[in-house]
Amino acid sequence: MRRTVLLAIAGLVLALLVPAVTTAPAQAASAWPVTQSGQPRNNNAMSLQHLLTARGWSTTADGVFGAGTKSNLQAFQSSQGLTADGIAGSGTWPRLVVQVSQGSANTNAVKAAQTQLNKYGANLVVDGIFGSGTRASVVSFQANRGLSQTGTVDLATWQELLGWSQTYDQSLCYSTGGSSTSSLTTAQLANVNTITDATQAAGGNRNVQIIALMTAMQESKYCNIQFGDRDSLGLFQQRPSQGWCPGSVACVNPTQSTQGFLGVSSATSNPGLFDISGWESMEKTLAADRVQRSCCPNAYAQWEPMATSLVNTYGG
User: Fold this and answer.
1) How many CA atoms lie within 13 A of 163 on its CB side?
2) Helix residue spans in the chain (DSSP H)
3) What is the pLDDT of residue 22?
4) Which of 68, 66, 97 is nearest to 80 (CA)?
5) CA-CA distance, 137 to 122, in Å (whole number)?
6) Which among 13, 83, 235, 253 is least buried, having the fewest CB atoms inside 10 angstroms?
């Protein structure tokens, strides 16, 4: 009896000493989304395209639900005995998604999962490799949504990834985001804050913040997109093939891409703003172009008033 009591006390003490894993309370499942032609470019459409390819119907994954995507979706629906209406809803998504986990060989299904995780700020490179970084993002998302933290993108996790909030969908941000201070979306403002914070942390003054914000608005509309001209990525549309971010990760991490633009990132040897001789005395649009090496050096100038207003509000 004494031994039993001592064991019980010991167990209680141990339970008090070992911290519990923080998990959001279980919640009602999100509804499967309805994804169809005519919608703005978005991550759900891009994931659908990756999944169609994973299922054997090769589809360009650009997030634009066009005629080719609809035709391939109808073919998939017919193969599953579903109504071939070319609309992905609650009857189609559960048949289309593919369970993936660390080490999964179905690269297109993994790309679909990574695309969805990026909708919630994972900042993953969509490379189809389900490594430790992707698994950590899955576990974090599952904890946030009150799901079992298995690290496997199962049916329940797919349902949350696809059907939950669209607020931070970076592709949708680009399609529907505002182009004035008062019309910026939540996703755009989150990226604005990241840019100003990263600029301050690098020792940048007010003018540096304005130049960085002018540039990002012209290049990406303050949206952390994974598409652009050729292999351009992220807020500043930096190109891995041009040495901005070998491995691509730094191009899609808002803080690291800002550091790259400034010239304080270890991910690139390309010159950033701080490396440009005399940038302080240049017109801001020309200073931006010296980093970006764009086709249109004066294009950034149109955003200077907006960037100045944003620095007044969000800058340090």
Assistant:
1) 20
2) 2-17, 43-54, 67-79, 93-96, 107-119, 132-144, 155-163, 170-176, 186-201, 206-220, 254-262, 284-292, 304-314
3) 54
4) 97
5) 6
6) 13
For residue 233, the SS3 value is strand
pLDDT for 23 equals: 60
Taking a C-beta distance cutoff of 8 angstroms, is the pair 272, 256 a contact? no
Rounded to 10 degrees, what is the CA torsion of 226, 227, 233, 234? -60
Among 31, 100, 37, 109, smallest CA distance to 74 is for 37
CA-to-CA separations, 103 to 18, 131, 187, 277, in angstroms, rounded: 31, 7, 31, 47
Q: What is the DSSP letter of 63?
A: S
CB contact at 8 A, 172 and 166: yes
Residues of the chain with CATH 1.10.530: 182-314
- CA–CA gap between residue 144 and residue 149 (Å, rounded): 10
Would you state the pLDDT for residue 26? 62
Q: What tokens does 69 get? A: 């995507």
Structure tokens that stand for 32 in this block: 């499967």
Q: Which two tokens stand for residue 113?
A: 């999962």
Selecting from 1.10.150, 3.30.870, 1.10.530, 3.40.390, what CATH number does the domain 182-314 have? Answer: 1.10.530
Give per-residue burial for 22-33: e unless 16+ CB within 10 Å, then b. eeeeeeeeeebb
293: left (phi over 0), alpha (psi -120 to 50) or beta: left
Encode burial over 242-275: b for 16+ CB neighbours within 10 A, e otherwise: eebbeebbbbbbbbbbbbbbbbbbebbebebbbe
